[in-house]
Write a structure and sequence with these properties.
Layout (H helix, E strand, L loop, with lengths): L1 E7 L4 E11 H12 L8 E13 L2 H13 L12 E4 L3 H16 L4 E4 L2 H8 L10 E2 L1
Parallel strand pairs: 2-3, 3-4, 4-5
Antiparallel strand pairs: 1-2, 1-6
Helix pairs in contact: 1-2
């Protein structure tokens, strides 16, 4: 699995793009890096799953991800009006992302899932995705 994280402080935006294969361990690794970003509590987030070719995420892994996310202590409370977009164009990804969105909404997190890229970008206030320049994962 490969993912890129790009933080744009001027736009108050963090973009995460996944590609290749994604499994439970890698999702948790990305979460650690994302939570460590200086703008995490304030920046909107655009998470792009459009280039993923294979998923090895288990139901246990999804539950673990949610538990770890709820138990994390952030350096600062997340901004209430922060937007998080999951761009999930295929059926499997869209279904898994909707499950995450359901859990997020119960926690008061503004997370929306989109199949359509223009609609996703519009929701977060962008006309295109910023260039991806940092490679992690």
């Amino acid at each position: 699995m490969t993912y890129k994280i790009y933080e744009d402080p001027e736009r108050s935006l963090i973009t995460v793009s996944f590609s290749g294969s994604v499994d439970d361990r890698e999702i948790l690794h990305m979460m650690d890096e994302l939570y460590g970003r200086s703008g995490f509590a304030d920046a909107d987030q655009f998470i792009d799953f459009s280039q993923v070719k294979h998923y090895a995420i288990t139901p246990k892994g999804m539950v673990n991800y949610n538990e770890v996310a709820r138990e994390r202590t952030e350096r600062a409370p997340a901004k209430k009006n922060r937007k998080i977009v999951l761009y999930a164009p295929d059926d499997l990804t869209f279904g898994m992302a909707r499950l995450l969105a359901s859990v997020a909404s119960n926690s008061g997190i503004n997370l929306e899932v989109f199949r359509d890229l223009p609609k996703a970008l519009d929701f977060i206030g962008l006309d295109r995705l910023p260039a991806q320049s940092e490679k992690n994962g």
